[in-house]
């Protein structure tokens, strides 16, 4: 029986929906079934593991608690109910098998001691599997036992050391065990697999529950599908079928001729969609007929559009000209350096854009200046109410003149722009809104020029001040990037980096800017200035100051870095302090030496008298000791007097290169004996200094003796160097690869009686005498660490002397 036509598309929809629902139900049921099976397997596996854990707990308790306690109380007896872990675990787990609740536990073995627990064929097969595969620790799977499906969890039972007492040699086994079982169950070896722990969980009942659950779920799903089918049928009929019927009815009403009736009868043989498609094809034919009618209307519309397009083109061209004018004025603003230059550049362009005869600008601010173009033209007259025009924020036309107010960004009046045309009609045809916007743009540009000019003036003043500071000064941001640096900072950075850095980042010379302890981050975080002293490996020292600069929100985001070199200042301060201290010590030493020298002379006098009156050899030996130490004390006092006695500065001149070469030759024997390399670096020509030969020899000998004492045998290296500093000064250096002079010792190294040598190895006056001799002739002596050898470096700076007059002959005189 053929279905009514309105239900054809509906029947197709319901049939397809039913097939989709059936496929979805089958797929969902299968997935749900597999999921439940997996859940069931996990549950069964967990139950089996729980049983094995329970068995392990029983056996551990027997081995660790019951069996040791029984041996303490009954050392000669063996109570199987308390000592056998297998016996107790079987007895405790026996109710599981008896209750028939779907669980089986068996502990079986081949050649079991108790025949009741002898392994059957199935269990023997599992035992052989464990014996064949030593790496197999656990077997699990499904087996059918007694016509019922079980999940099995089986593990091997191995003989351990403690099992050998009851399963090893029968002679070592308990007597009670032999009475119970005879010779059965003995002769086992440690590590053998004797049996298995066998746990089985029935899955028959669980599978049945899963199947019933799946069936219930499928039944509910079928019920829901029927309800959905009913709802979908109703909704499809209301939302789709009824609307399709309405569309088809529209087509029937619009087709009234015989050909259309025949077409509708043919369409009734298909469903609603076919009828709709065919109806749309018929509608397209009607649209084709209407197209010819629309073409007539289009011709008339084209003429109207062309007229309107010409008008719009003119307007667009005018707007383009306005945009080009604004762009050119913006360029002029960037090029201009003053208001006058801006108006001279802008007025001709504005006049040409609006085809005006004349243009003028009158500034109503303090300058009261005015500009006109063409320049030879006369200034147009202002209206009587020009104040109202200026403050009215609107363009005002008077005859052939148009007055445009020029305002700043805050609305303040800047001036008045005046344009003149030949006729009043030409003045009236221009867009006043554009002219008003032009006036505001010009006002803002003039205001910005004033601000930029003020800013440039302030920046020039600031740049002049910063560049005028002789010390390095840098402005840096929070990322340690240099924003501004003066020439002193750039010069210092380039000098200390060998030209590698020219941005003036002086902070990077002393700190790692990416480290956590960078002072830049500390200053920004604390918001307080930081003053510290920094130094370079070469001995140069600087006073570093960091001052935070707050941003708009009050939080410091920039830092001013100021650096001042204090190397010469520290050296001069140290020299002044050393000179004052040496002068004081000299005065004290002179007085002390005079007071002690007289008693020493008396001691020597009376020692000579006693020598004439005694004959005992022991007493004569004692007198010699007294005289020797007294003369030693006099020599020390003589050195002190030489140190404290005023000397004539520049008492002579000497060739520094010749004296240094002679001293190297003198000390070469001592250096060779000690295995020390002694070298000299000197210029080939003569270098005359203002110091006598004897004094210069004493200075160099003291420095070389100290260097030879400081270096190690066979690895020592001492180097002397003579060089020219400039036209006025020369230097003599003695450096070694010894341990060097520590910072604490360097502060006192030139003090009298201060020595770093062992007791008795020196008097502590050598460097003191060197210091006095050098300073007396206007020179300096300094100590630091040698950058090449790593040890101490003594640098003596002496004034240069003339090539003639007063130069002493080279000799080895003087004190050593």
From TrEMBL:
It is an enzyme of class 2 (transferase). GO terms for molecular function: ATP binding; phosphorelay sensor kinase activity. Residues 591-802 form the Histidine kinase domain. Residues 797-816 are annotated as: Disordered. InterPro entries: HATPase_C_sf, HATPase_dom, His_kinase_dom, HisK_dim/P_dom, HisK_dim/P_sf, Sig_transdc_His_kin-like_C, Tll0287-like_dom. It catalyses: ATP + protein L-histidine = ADP + protein N-phospho-L-histidine. The chain crosses the membrane at residues 214-236. Residues 280-307 form a coiled coil. PANTHER family: PEROXIDE STRESS-ACTIVATED HISTIDINE KINASE MAK3, SENSOR HISTIDINE KINASE. This is histidine kinase.
